[in-house]
């Protein structure tokens, strides 16, 4: 079994530059197509060999009829169940995306970050990638785009650097507006916002929606950002700190589900009743929201349809269609539970 | 982008048979190696073209130095989070196996069953596969072995049909013995056993361990099998039926975590206290066990190490080593929680 060496990929452009010919000539020479004079063909072959050039596997597959390979990447480790907060989200996307990809003849590979820090793309010759809610400084997205690989982001990429990356819009602004409106309708007079610290579009849009609501309602602006790796303990600390400083808080909107569980734990320890004294709502309606005590009001993001849309969008790119820059997810739906009733 | 047609794969043997030559001759003719006379080479090429033969991609990768592709298969759908009971188990294995595979230069593809019933192996040209706790009649395992693909099972395959499939032994018998001994040590006098209905080795070994305990202790033999797709409702029904027929039950050993959550729900509804009136224990220590009310005593199966062992075993097979037939997982560890304290 062959394992490719972890070296930077030599591209067809490198071969063309070193051989002093065009990329098309290299392609024709190596693939035995078109008109290439024998001396040029030899020169190209020698250059390719000297540089250690391997033809792109996607190009090979186009010829051989093999199936494509796409990566599902995440800046969060694909760690153990019940660990990182975003694992449920990730795996819900993974399961549907794998099926959709397979129906289109594509193999979906789980590509976790390597502990060594090496780029997985030096090892795997993928044809394209899905990436989930990348932050502004996401290394994996930068790696993908630097290699010119087709990539589709689930959720708009954070920051401005990735403006050209097509994405499925998760409608984070409207989602947060809906949650805030729900909490207000249930009587909340002072809502606190708890977010992850990463520069994700979903957080930026949540902050914007929250600020607009604060301005319109006259509530105090009470928001806290936490490192996403802090888990339930982070949520407990956030609730304790915020309530100590602002005892008037009667509702928490906590975008990260595992933080929301921590908030619920602190409220219980502090003898506060949910929802009578303090309400809690979160975003992703995963197993954590459903199994929290009490169960948490959350949002159905229609991740099954989101995953299918992302695969469709990537499929367009792989076929070489300029295609759409962004598609919208179906409108998220509120799932009201005991934490706000 | 090329999508391979969903037709049965034409093998090199088919080409050899139709061309009236040996497999070695076909290989040499198509790869431009060895001594093949030009007329034979032409005949082989024409036959390969006529049959629609594509060289095996693994063989191609051996030549081109591309990375290998392995499948992670499961007879359970890779469905939404919080859905099927075994998803957490599956995804915990998937996350670690993907990392281990990548470190060995292999791409791990999630391969869910297709709704159409078509074999994913007609679409994806994988080099080998991991399969999780296949039952005796597992179609995916049969499909893999019929194609002669290297496969490693996580958990011993059910039944006798798959005797030759290498596996990581999950030590299901000792695991259940440990759980039963724990329940007895906590004072259980009548333990009921609840299992899934599939013919999995873990259930067969659990039944055996339970029967031995019943014989040794003089307890009544009270066991029930449920369709794994029934979820929490199945667990509630099982608890209701068993307690109605056998009110002396003071402990449930429920091998499927989602059933165990249903049992806890029924006990609460029936006004029975856990653990004072009835204890509950389950097998997989996933998020369901941890977030159940009360949290459930379960077993740390060391799935991270299990996944690495499985990748190692598959790697041996892919390299052509006859290798080991079975490796043992590390000894599972009891995680005692409120449901038995």
TrEMBL record, chains A, B:
It holds the Pfam family LacI. SUPFAM superfamilies: lambda repressor-like DNA-binding domains, Periplasmic binding protein-like I. It comes from the Bacteria. Keywords: DNA-binding, Repressor, Transcription, Transcription regulation. This is LacI family DNA-binding transcriptional regulator. Residues 10-64 form the HTH lacI-type domain. Gene3D superfamilies: 3.40.50.2300, lambda repressor-like DNA-binding domains (1.10.260.40). One of its GO terms (molecular function) is DNA binding.
């Amino acid at each position: 079994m062959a394992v490719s060496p972890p070296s930077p990929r030599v591209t067809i452009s490198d071969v063309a530059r070193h051989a002093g010919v065009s990329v098309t000539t290299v392609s024709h020479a190596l693939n035995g197509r078109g008109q290439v004079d024998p001396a040029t063909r030899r020169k190209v072959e020698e250059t390719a060999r000297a540089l250690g050039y391997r033809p792109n596997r996607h190009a090979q597959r186009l010829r051989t009829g093999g199936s494509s390979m796409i990566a599902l990447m995440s800046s969060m480790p694909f760690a153990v169940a019940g660990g990182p907060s975003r694992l449920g989200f990730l795996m819900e996307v993974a399961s549907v995306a794998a099926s959709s990809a397979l129906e289109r003849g594509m193999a979906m590979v789980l590509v976790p970050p390597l502990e060594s820090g090496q780029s997985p793309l030096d090892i795997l010759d993928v044809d394209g990638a899905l990436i989930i809610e990348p932050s502004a400084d996401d290394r994996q997205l930068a790696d993908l785009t630097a290699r010119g690989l087709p990539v589709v982001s689930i959720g708009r990429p954070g920051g401005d650097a990735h403006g050209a990356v097509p994405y499925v819009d998760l409608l984070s602004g409207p989602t947060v507006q809906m949650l805030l409106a729900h909490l207000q309708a249930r009587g909340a007079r002072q809502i606190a916002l708890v977010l992850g610290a990463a520069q994700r579009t979903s957080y930026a849009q949540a902050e914007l929606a929250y600020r607009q609501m604060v301005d319109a309602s006259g509530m105090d602006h009470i928001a806290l950002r936490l490192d996403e790796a802090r888990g339930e303990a982070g949520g407990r600390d956030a609730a304790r700190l915020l309530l100590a400083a602002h005892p008037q808080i009667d509702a928490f909107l906590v975008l990260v589900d595992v933080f929301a569980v921590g908030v619920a734990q602190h409220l219980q320890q502090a003898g506060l009743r949910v929802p009578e004294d303090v309400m809690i709502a979160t975003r992703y309606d995963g197993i954590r929201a459903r199994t929290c005590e009490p169960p948490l009001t959350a949002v159905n993001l229609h991740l099954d349809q989101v995953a299918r849309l992302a695969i469709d969008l990537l499929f367009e790119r792989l076929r070489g269609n300029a295609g759409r820059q962004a598609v919208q997810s179906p409108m998220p739906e509120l799932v009201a539970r005991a934490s706000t009733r």
